[in-house]
Design brief:
This protein has 226 residues and is α/β, with parallel strands linked by helices. The chain is 35% helix and 17% strand. It is built from nine helices and eight strands. The strands form two sheets. It has a six-stranded parallel beta sheet, sandwiched between helices. A two-stranded antiparallel ribbon has the order 5-6. Strand 3, helix 3 and strand 4 form a beta-alpha-beta unit. Helix 2 crosses helix 3. The longest helix has 14 residues. The radius of gyration is 16 Å and the shape is globular.
Length: 226
């Protein structure tokens, strides 16, 4: 039995990963879809102080309270920032990292830095209403909620301990225009320390490549020591 912790991207709560969590549980595994502070059913906790450190701590608390170790930690999109911070602060609890069309930051980088000028402007324009809540783009699911601005502009602090995680995988979703992940995928595909996958689908991997994502996660779990 493996344990999966699933961290969604911006504007999304644990509901987005819940169908995948159900599938993994049906296969006999543990699965924890995470809702980060200020988003989804926790949107009532939104505040200017909610930042990337808050979201990293959300997942660290889950690992601590549930006494989880050897987990397959998966982050989608913005969730890559969070899982990087979690793995760097608690590498002893993480057995594998899977980045699903997600940011893989270096020390001192923010989601806003990595997203590029187009998305950086979207973040700022969408937060004009109150100055700290980035409204969801109109094409997203009706369950999407505003996302804390501070979490996408705060620079991550990494010691490099996350590189101790023996299994690191990246999923590139090539079927959407304007993706900021092409260069990252090309770099990681040339790095022997990474396993990379490329799927010709849009950014919503749950809708477009559910079975493929399931198989990739199960494959990452097989790399864990018994």
């Amino acid at each position: 039995m493996a344990t999966f912790v699933l961290v969604p991207g911006g504007w999304h709560g644990g509901w987005w990963f819940e169908p995948l969590a159900r599938r993994l549980r049906e296969l006999g595994h543990q699965a924890f879809p995470v809702t980060l502070t200020g988003v989804g059913e926790r949107s009532h906790l939104a505040a200017p102080s909610v930042n990337l450190d808050t979201h990293i701590q959300d997942v660290l608390q889950l690992l601590e309270q549930e006494r989880l170790s050897g987990v397959v930690l998966c982050g989608h999109s913005y969730g890559g920032m969070v899982v990087s911070g979690v793995a760097d602060r608690a590498p002893e609890r993480v057995g594998a990292l899977v980045y699903s069309d997600a940011y893989v930051p270096e020390d001192g980088e923010s989601c806003s830095d990595l997203a590029g000028a187009r998305f950086r402007q979207l973040f700022l324009d969408s937060a004009r209403a109150d100055g700290f809540s980035v409204a969801p783009p109109p094409m997203l699911d009706r369950q999407a909620t505003a996302h804390p601005l501070a979490s996408v502009v705060q620079a991550i602090r990494l010691t490099g301990a996350w590189r101790q995680i023996p299994t690191r995988e990246f999923i590139y979703l090539s079927g959407w225009s304007g993706t900021p992940f092409t260069g990252l995928y090309q770099r990681l595909a040339a790095d022997p320390e990474w396993v990379t996958h490329s799927l010709p689908v849009g950014h919503n991997i749950i809708a477009d490549a559910f079975d493929e994502l399931t198989e990739i996660l199960l494959g990452a779990a097989k790399s864990l020591p018994v």
